[in-house]
Design a protein that fits this description.
The complex is a heterodimer.
Chain A: H1 3-11, E1 16-17, H2 18-28, H3 37-49, E2 53-55, E3 66-69, H4 71-82, H5 94-104, H6 110-134, H7 140-166
Antiparallel strand pairs in A: 1-3, 2-3
Helix pairs in contact in A: 2-3, 5-6, 6-7
Chain B: E1 2-11, E2 18-28, E3 33-37, H1 44-51, E4 59-64, E5 67-68, H2 74-84, E6 85-89, H3 100-110, H4 115-128, H5 144-156, E7 162-166, H6 174-189, E8 193-197, H7 201-204, E9 209-214, E10 217-221
Parallel strand pairs in B: 3-8, 3-9, 6-7, 7-8
Antiparallel strand pairs in B: 1-2, 1-4, 4-5, 9-10
Helix pairs in contact in B: 3-4, 3-5, 4-5, 5-6
The chains are: A mainly alpha, B alpha/beta.
C-alpha cells in the first residue's frame, strides 16, 4: 500500500490540510489501515521535496498546513495507477517453502502440514468475513478491502488444495523417499524465477 | 438439533466396496452454521443426504431435533423432512410449472396445511428473502440469485429447524453467492441449525465452524474465530 500515491489521489480533487488527509485516507480504505500523523507529514514533506505537491506558503508544519497537487504530481499519480504491480516473479512464499520442505522430511506427512495451514487460513478468512458481515451495507470501501484480503487468502487455500491432490498419498517403506518426494535424481523441468 | 453418532456409509460390496463415511461424529446446535469442506469423494454429499434422512447410514445413528432416525419408518422420515428439514441444492430444484409462491408453499401443502395457510406462510418467507414482488413469477422468469432465494424460502417455510445446503451457490456469481451466505447465516442466527457443504473457502468462511472431511473421516475443524480487531492493526507502508 503506497501512502505516497494515496495522498496524491486525495489531493487530486482539491487542496487539503494534513489532518484532513489522514481522516480521508482512513475513511477511503475502510479504516482497515490506521495511519499515524507522523507518517502523513513525513510523506507530505517528501512529496513537497520531489515537487509533486506544494504546501501553503508561510504556513508552519502541522495540522493546519495545506497542500495541493502539482502538474508533476498529477502525472506521477496517473502513471502509478496504470503501472501493474510487480507480480511476474514468483515470490519467496513461506507457505510454498514449508510444503516443499515437508515433502522431504522423513516422518512428516505433508498432507497433515497442508491441513494445518488450510485450517489456519480458513480461520483467518472467517475473521475477515465477520468484519464484512458486521459492516454497514453501504461501506463499500471496507467491503473492497476485506474482499481483497479474502481473495488473496482464498488463492493460498486453493493452492493448498491443489498441492494436496497433486502429492501422492503413499505409505512410506523403510529406506524410501519421504511422502510426495520426487524420484531421486529427477530434476525439475525448469526453474521459475530462480533468485539467489 | 442435528447429531451424527459414529455414522459410517459403505456403498457396494467385495471388490467394489467404497467407504464413503467412516465413524463420523458431528453435532450442530440451533443457531449454528457449520460448513463441511473436503475434496471430491471425501464424503461431503453422503454426509448431507444421511443427515437429511434421504439415505440410511450403514451403521451409526442420526438424531434430528432429539428424534433418532434409527428404526423410523419411511413415512415417519418423510414427515420429519417436511416438518423439520429444509434442503437447498446447487441447481435450485424448483418446479418450473409453479410460481415462486406455489413452489414455496408446496412442502406445507404436502404436509396437510390448508392452501390458504400455506400461501400465507410462503408469502412471509418470500418477504423475508426480499422476493414478495416476485411471488407470482415462474422460475424461468427469475434470475439465478432470485431462484436460489426462492429455494431457500422453500427450505425455511414452516419454521423448520434444520437447513441442509449442498453447494448452494455453485451456480451463482460472487455477489449473489455472498447474498445467499448472508441469508443462511441470518437464518441460523434466528434459531435454525445449518449445514452447508462446499468446496469454496470464501463461502465456508461465513460459517461459525468449518469441518474438514478426508476419505470419509472428519480430520479437522476450525475453532471459533477470534474478534476482528487484530486484523486492523497493521499499517501501510510509506
Amino acid at each position: 500500500m503506497s501512502v505516497r500515491h494515496a495522498l496524491l489521489a486525495l489531493l487530486s480533487d482539491g487542496p487539503k490540510y494534513g489532518l484532513q488527509l489522514r481522516h480521508e485516507f482512513e475513511a477511503r480504505t475502510g479504516e482497515v489501515w490506521p495511519l499515524n500523523v507522523g507518517q502523513v507529514y513525513t510523506t507530505l514533506q517528501r512529496l513537497e521535496r520531489d515537487g509533486l505537491v506544494v504546501g501553503s506558503e508561510g504556513a508552519e508544519e502541522g495540522p493546519q498546513k495545506g497542500y495541493r497537487i502539482t502538474v508533476d504530481g498529477a502525472r506521477e499519480l496517473t502513471s502509478w495507477l496504470q503501472t501493474p504491480p510487480d507480480v511476474e516473479q514468483p515470490p519467496r512464499d513461506e507457505l510454498l517453502i514449508k510444503v516443499l520442505v515437508a515433502v522431504q522430511v522423513p516422518g512428516v506427512d505433508v498432507h497433515d502440514v497442508i491441513q494445518v495451514h488450510r485450517r489456519h487460513l480458513i480461520e483467518l478468512m472467517q475473521r475477515y468475513t465477520a468484519v464484512k458481515a458486521d459492516a454497514a451495507e453501504d461501506d463499500v470501501a471496507l467491503a473492497l478491502v476485506v474482499d481483497a484480503e479474502l481473495f488473496r487468502i482464498e488463492a493460498a487455500v486453493r493452492w493448498l488444495d491443489a498441492a494436496d491432490a497433486r502429492l501422492p498419498r503413499v505409505t512410506p517403506t523403510p529406506g524410501a523417499p519421504a511422502r510426495g518426494a520426487p524420484a531421486a535424481g529427477k530434476a525439475p523441468a525448469r526453474r521459475l524465477g530462480a533468485r539467489s | 438439533m442435528l447429531e451424527l453418532r459414529h455414522v459410517s456409509k459403505v456403498y457396494g460390496e467385495g471388490l467394489t466396496e467404497v467407504h464413503a463415511l467412516l465413524e463420523v461424529n458431528l453435532a450442530v446446535a440451533r443457531g449454528e452454521l457449520v460448513a463441511i469442506m473436503g475434496p471430491s469423494g471425501s464424503g461431503k454429499s453422503s454426509l448431507l443426504t444421511i443427515a437429511g434422512s434421504l439415505e440410511d447410514p450403514t451403521s451409526g445413528d442420526v438424531v434430528v431435533g432429539g428424534a433418532s432416525l434409527q428404526g423410523m419408518s419411511r413415512r415417519e422420515k418423510s414427515r420429519l423432512r417436511r416438518r423439520s428439514i429444509g434442503f437447498v441444492f446447487q441447481d435450485f430444484n424448483l418446479l418450473s410449472g409453479l410460481t415462486a409462491a406455489e413452489n414455496v408453499a408446496m412442502p406445507l401443502e404436502l404436509d396437510g396445511t390448508s392452501a390458504r395457510a400455506a400461501r400465507a406462510a410462503a408469502m412471509t418467507a418470500l418477504e423475508y428473502l426480499g422476493l414478495a414482488d416476485r411471488a407470482e413469477h415462474h422460475p424461468d422468469d427469475l434470475s439465478g440469485g432470485e431462484r436460489q432465494r426462492v429455494a431457500i424460502a422453500r427450505a425455511i417455510v414452516g419454521e423448520r429447524g434444520l437447513l441442509l445446503a449442498d453447494e448452494p451457490t455453485g451456480a451463482l456469481d460472487s455477489i449473489n453467492s455472498e447474498a445467499v451466505m448472508r441469508l443462511l447465516r441470518d437464518i441460523t442466527r434466528r434459531g435454525a441449525a445449518g449445514v452447508v457443504v462446499t468446496h469454496d473457502a470464501q463461502l465456508a468462511s461465513w460459517a461459525d465452524r468449518v469441518v474438514f472431511l478426508r476419505d470419509g473421516r472428519v480430520v479437522d475443524q476450525t475453532v471459533p474465530p477470534a474478534g476482528p480487531e487484530s486484523l486492523l492493526a497493521s499499517g501501510p507502508q510509506s
